[in-house]
């Protein structure tokens, strides 16, 4: 099997919550303002120069992009960590905008965002810098929980289908290769193909695992 690019899975609650969304964006704007303030300090900017060598990370733009993608993709996305947002994602995880929830990250509103915490987030990313012989290279993906692309897509589909359990649609739903959900009023049954690599990685030991909905 060829090399699979690492991804992070991000999700948010499917129910509309204007207060949460508004607070999340306000905090992201605050973080960006503090990040811009930090970069106006010549000594700090020199210290974090590898982060800004090609373009200056923008936390506010990253927040808008992630939220927009979530809106278009059923509130769960798989993000390529070799893309342009990895520095921002790593900083925002450190700041508390994304919290780890199993195999994915969930949107969260940080309790507080300060200049010191923003500087610490940048320096945390800088701690991943390596010199490969042609200058320093920052590897913020080392700070993130990543999975191969196929597994990320499987988890994304899993999240979406699990949320649909509360709907009135019942029957067999294909989640990923070798994994199906059989839905009914009593609960749902997870059917796994024993040869499925994704199934093994999800650590579902039984080929026929029955879970019952509460109530």
Walk me through the structure.
- This protein is α+β, with helices and mostly antiparallel strands and 215 residues long.
- Helix content is 41%, strand content 22%.
- It is built from 8 helices and 11 strands.
- The chain has helices at 18-39, 42-47, 49-52, 59-72, 86-95, 115-126, 149-163, 197-201; strands spanning 6-11, 76-80, 98-101, 104-107, 130-131, 136-137, 147-148, 171-176, 179-184, 187-192, 208-212.
- Strands 1, 2, 3, 4 and 7 form a 5-stranded mixed beta sheet that branches. The chain has a 4-stranded antiparallel beta sheet with strand order 8-9-10-11.
- Helix 1 (18-39) packs antiparallel against helix 4 (59-72) and helix 5 crosses helix 6 (115-126).
Can you tell me the overall shape?
globular
**β-strand amount:** 15-25%
Overall structural class, as computed from helix and strand content, comes to alpha+beta
Residue windows where pLDDT falls under 50 for at least 5 positions = 168-176, 183-192, 201-215
Characterize the biggest β-sheet.
5 strands, mixed
The total of helices stands at 8
- What percent of residues adopt helix (DSSP H or I)? 40-55%
Mean pLDDT: 82
Q: Give the terminus-to-terminus CA distance.
A: 44 Å
Query: What's the Cα radius of gyration?
Result: 20 Å
Give the ordered list of helices and strands. Answer: EHHHHEHEEHEEEHEEEHE
Number of β-strand runs: 11
């Amino acid at each position: 099997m060829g090399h699979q690019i690492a991804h992070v899975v991000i999700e948010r609650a499917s129910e509309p919550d204007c207060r949460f969304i508004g607070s999340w964006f306000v905090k992201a704007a605050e973080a960006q303002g503090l990040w811009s303030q930090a970069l106006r300090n010549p000594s700090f900017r020199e210290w974090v120069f590898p982060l800004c060598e090609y373009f200056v990370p923008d936390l506010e733009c990253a927040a808008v992009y992630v939220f927009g993608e979530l809106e278009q993709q059923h509130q769960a996305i798989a993000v390529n960590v070799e893309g342009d947002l990895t520095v921002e994602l790593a900083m925002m995880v450190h700041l508390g905008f994304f919290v780890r929830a199993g195999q994915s990250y969930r949107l969260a509103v940080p309790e507080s965002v300060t200049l010191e915490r923003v500087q610490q987030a940048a320096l945390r990313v800088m701690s991943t810098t390596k010199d490969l012989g042609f200058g320093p290279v920052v590897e913020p993906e080392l700070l993130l929980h990543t999975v191969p692309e196929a597994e990320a897509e499987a988890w994304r589909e899993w999240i979406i289908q699990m949320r649909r359990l509360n709907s009135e649609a019942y029957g067999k739903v294909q989640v990923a290769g070798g994994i199906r959900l059989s839905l009914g009023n009593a609960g749902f049954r997870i059917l796994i193909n024993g040869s499925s690599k994704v199934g093994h990685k999800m650590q579902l030991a039984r080929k026929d695992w029955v879970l019952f909905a509460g109530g």
